[in-house]
Amino acid sequence: MKPAAVRHQPLGQLLIAHGVITEDQLRIALLEQSMTRLALGKQLVQMGFVTEAALRDALSESLGKQGVDLSRAIADPDALALVPEDLARRHRILPLRWDADARSLTIASSDTDDIVALDRLRTRLPPESQIESLLAGENEIVRAIDQYYGFELSIDGILTEIETGEIDYR
């Protein structure tokens, strides 16, 4: 774990300190951000200055939250059954693990402090359940939701169908 001073560094400065972006890239992104009003991390990813994985790792360190690489994670069917697809898509959360004995649900989220999402999720769980949030990239979460809940009606699903001529009948 890094010292508290490092965790509280602004995201841009943290990315510079780790050699992920340059000061010039940060200045360009901040200028663009003033027009688009996107969060700095999203702006940096959109501009191609940083990958979503590098951003996730920097945010994990900065916020003191554990991150998860969804390309390597496997969602538990019991966890998926607890969270309806519309809730997962609306709040960009992916249920990963459900421990029924401990009444503990582990989710991936791009905003681990989204109180509205966590409150809505709690209403779906047994009483006194705990929720552990792991940090993941927003695009990673969308891809994983498509994978686990089915994506025939999503943009990715439509594009896949057009490209391959195959329909996913999940």
Short account of what is shown:
By secondary structure, this protein is mainly alpha-helical.
Structural summary, described in words:
Residues 1-7 have low confidence and may be disordered. With 170 residues, the chain is mainly alpha-helical. A three-stranded mixed sheet has the order 1-2-3. The chain starts with a helix and ends in a 6-residue tail after the last helix. It is built from ten helices and three strands.
What topology emerges from the helices and strands here?
Blueprint: H1 4-7, H2 11-17, H3 23-36, H4 40-46, H5 52-63, H6 77-82, H7 85-91, E1 93-99, E2 104-109, H8 115-122, E3 130-135, H9 138-149, H10 155-164
Parallel strand pairs: 2-3
Antiparallel strand pairs: 1-2
Q: Cα distance, first to last residue?
A: 42 Å
How would you spell out the order of helices and strands? HHHHHHHEEHEHH
Total strands: the figure is 3
Low-confidence stretches: 1-7
Major sheet attributes: 3 strands, mixed
Percent strand equals 5-15%
Rg calc: 18 Å
Question: How are the strands of the biggest sheet laid out side by side?
Answer: 1-2-3
Q: What's the overall geometry?
A: globular
Give structural attributes.
170 residues; mainly alpha; 10 helices; 3 strands; 11% strand
